[in-house]
Amino acid sequence: MSNAIELDIGFSPCPNDTFIFDALIHQRIDTAPFRFQPQIADVEELNKRGFAGTHPITKLSFYAYLLLKDRYDLLDSGAALGYGCGPLLVARKIGGHDPLSPEIGIVSPDWIRDARIAVPGRYTTAYLLLQIWRGKCGRAEFVRFDEILPGVASGKYDAGLIIHEGRFVYQKYHCRKIVDLGQWWESETGLPLPLGCIALRRDMFRYKEAVETLLRQSVRQAMKNPGAANEFIKLHAQELDDQVISDHISLYVNEFTLSLGQTGMRAIEALEERARCQGIL
User: Fold this and answer.
1) What H or E segment, with its residue span, contains residue 256?
2) Residues forming beta bridges with residue 59, ordered by sequence position
3) Hey, what long-range contacts does 145-150 have (CB within 8 A, 24 or more apart)?
4) Residue 224 class from Cβ within 10 Å (0-12 exposed, 13-18 middle, 19+ buried)?
5) Contact 197, 74 (CB under 8 A)
6) Fewer CB atoms near the end CB (10 Å): N or C, the chain?
7) Mean pLDDT, to the nearest integer, of 78-102?
8) What's the CA dihedral at 189, 87, 12, 14 to 10 degrees?
9) Residues sharing a CB contact under 8 Å with residue 131, sequence separation 6 or more, in sequence order
10) How far apart are CA 278 and CA 281, in angstroms?
């Protein structure tokens, strides 16, 4: 494409992102007048780059987006938002016995305060939800998402807050679920959980409508031809099992990925309101 407008676009290596961006990056749709250059990084790395304004278009955790609203504008398409897709707080099974009660809401506040909890990033929505659920966690340790389950299994951490593919494989690490924060959120609000979004740097606002349209076309193309992105997905996926990849995409790519709609926007507003009420934002 001669004389194309080249735009960097940051997104994570997770299957839901590589799935929805495949058509855009590999021009399975007509992207004129743009050519999009992928900048693939862990979502927390993308959050940090957001504070520097590194990429004109980027994936952000909704927590990071709420902190960056003065620099980035929310795009209507491309979000990870839905039901049954929240982060899980997990801990080891000790001697075949569960260390804590599995029921939501009765985990000891003292345990939460004192436990060493591995968290997948300071600006992740998972960490925001953990704080809304149980207040500040004084011993949270911020590590890459793929280091959490091995760390909990080895005893390095008392518990871990897992996202992405982790929710499908944590049992393999002899861990059990303490709380599903997505389930808790839904029971509290009746709304889907906003996890991550695609945002456009505000100095690029003139391109917003065109980029949003192309992104939606890319999502539709992926949904219509789900096998087309397999090579791109497996090139970057943390877990290569076909069923895990399929389950991951099915969970995080849905109607809200095409368009946030009124329900999606209400969910984002509810997240912001609760964070502000607790003094987190």
Assistant:
1) helix 255-258
2) 198
3) 145/42, 145/43, 145/44, 145/120, 145/121, 146/238, 147/118, 148/118, 148/119, 148/120, 149/90, 149/173, 149/175
4) exposed
5) yes
6) N
7) 77
8) -120
9) 137, 275, 278, 280
10) 8
Cα–Cα dist 261/254, whole Å: 12
Percent helix, percent strand, percent coil in the chain, to nearest 5: 50, 20, 30
Q: 172: helix, coil or strand?
A: helix
> In angstroms, rounded to a whole number, what is the distance separating the alpha carbons of residues 30 and 34?
9
What is the pTM assigned to this prediction? 0.93
Written as six digits, the tokens of 12 are 């994570």
Catalytic residues: 164
- Give the separation between CA 77 and CA 261, rounded to whole angstroms: 9
- In one-letter notation, the amino acid at residue 101 is S
pLDDT tens track for 204-242: 999 999 999 999 999 999 999 999 999 999 999 877 789
